[in-house]
Design a protein that fits this description.
The chain is mainly beta. It has one domain (2-355): Porin. The protein is built from 4 helices and 16 strands. The protein has helices spanning 5-14, 128-136, 176-179, 356-363; strands at 57-64, 67-73, 81-102, 105-120, 138-150, 155-167, 180-193, 196-205, 212-222, 227-233, 236-244, 247-268, 284-305, 308-326, 334-340, 343-352. The protein has a 16-stranded antiparallel β-sheet that branches. A hairpin with a 2-residue loop joins β3 and β4 (105-120). α1 (5-14) packs across α4 (356-363). The protein is globular. Mean pLDDT is 83; it is low at 1-40. InterPro entries: DUF6268. It comes from Hymenobacter psychrotolerans DSM 18569. Residues 1-19 form the signal peptide. Keywords: Signal.
Length: 366
């Protein structure tokens, strides 16, 4: 672990931008006024004074209690479904490694593993989609490359590309072409002062369930020694309160999207109104699951030790969609329209950050 600490120091110096996809920018561990390390930068970055420490390695666990599930079949031959989900849990492990750290160019490689699990009240549910999900869980294995390019003392831009394998696969049946999901984004911004940075751009991703391009506005601002805002609109807006350099509070909302490929063990046959199989439609063996949720959330981050922090988060989750689409036939028709009842959630997180002594070395005036 100690040998890895200089790497995380470089990660802190790199100061990635959009906290929705990148680790949060540097420093809450240093000066939270406008005279801190960022004030001495030769080149602009999206970070502002007072933001939380960069995360090098993250362990995150999230849990939701019982909630109602209602599924409405959109094609003839399938049944509706309504029951309670006893549990919905997510495990997330993420790591970031600086590949290049120059004043005018920074490259960061990231990897992530995520696992989402469901438990339903009556098992088996006799509903093919949910029996598949409960038995095999939903997994994501990904890698990303972020390019942070400070242009001068005012302007900066970021490019990120990410590839993920998402679905209910197992190691024995994984086919990369079936499960691969690619997302990317580009942001161009202006560093107006050590306490204010903003940018505009576009994202290609699954934040709203299906792959789409949408505009993005980054807005990072620290108003005084206590208050600030960190936003990547429309996906996330968060107010920040710096209680101390080692204790931060956050409140706001986030929109999260997931896209999974589901391989059914038992095929589903689409029928016409008379109950006969449709001649030009193959029986369903593969579904695309699009999940979108909005969270109203509060969060507390606190230093445990110099390079070790924890985070506690809680709030309310509103599920906008949990819909299944045909991936067997070319029409991509919606097969099942599902809704999850709103429910509270809670999460706990441990993460490793750059030690302050390394940050001081990397940000010392030259």
């Amino acid at each position: 672990m100690l040998r890895a600490l200089p790497l995380f120091a470089l990660l802190g110096a790199a100061a990635p931008a959009a906290a929705q996809v990148f680790p949060p920018p540097v420093p809450a561990t240093g000066d939270t006024t406008a005279t801190g390390a960022i004030d001495r930068q030769e080149f602009a970055t999206p970070s502002v004074v007072g933001m939380g420490p960069s995360k090098g390695l993250v362990f995150h666990y999230e849990r939701m209690p019982k909630f109602r599930v209602a599924s409405d079949a959109k094609v003839v031959g399938l049944q509706d479904y309504s029951a309670d989900a006893e549990k919905n849990a997510r495990l997330v492990i993420k790591g970031y490694i600086p590949m290049l750290n120059r004043p005018h160019l920074k490259l960061i490689m990231g990897v992530n593993y995520e696992r989402e699990e469901f438990e339903f009240k009556n098992v088996p549910t006799r509903y093919e989609l949910y029996d598949n999900i409960e038995d095999k869980a939903l997994k994501t294995l990904g890698a990303q490359l972020a390019v942070i390019r400070p242009v001068n003392t005012v302007n900066w831009y970021i490019f990120r590309i990410k590839g993920e394998l998402s679905g209910d696969y197992t190691s024995s049946e994984l086919n990369v072409s079936d499960y691969l999901r690619v997302s990317s984004e580009f942001l161009y911004g202006w560093k107006r002062s050590p306490t204010f940075s903003w940018g505009i751009g576009a994202q290609l991703g699954y934040t709203f369930g299906r792959q789409s391009i949408y505009p993005a506005v980054l807005y990072n601002r620290t108003f005084n020694n206590r208050w600030g805002v960190e936003a990547l609109f429309p996906a996330r807006i968060t107010m920040r309160y710096n209680a101390t350099p080692r204790s931060l509070f956050f409140a706001g909302y986030s929109v999260d999207g997931f896209n999974y490929i589901i391989k059914l063990r038992n095929e589903l046959k689409r029928q016409n109104a008379e109950g006969d199989a449709i001649a030009d439609k193959k029986p369903l063996r593969t579904l695309e699951l699009r999940e979108t949720e909005v969270k109203l959330r509060g969060r507390w981050e606190r230093e445990i030790y110099d390079f070790l922090w924890f985070g506690l988060e809680g709030g309310y989750r509103y599920n906008h969609a949990f819909d299944a689409f045909d991936r067997t036939n070319a029409d991509r028709e919606k097969i099942i329209d599902s809704k999850f009842a709103g429910a509270p959630y809670a999460s706990v997180e441990l993460f490793i950050v750059p030690p302050r002594k390394f940050l001081k070395k990397t940000t010392a005036p030259r």
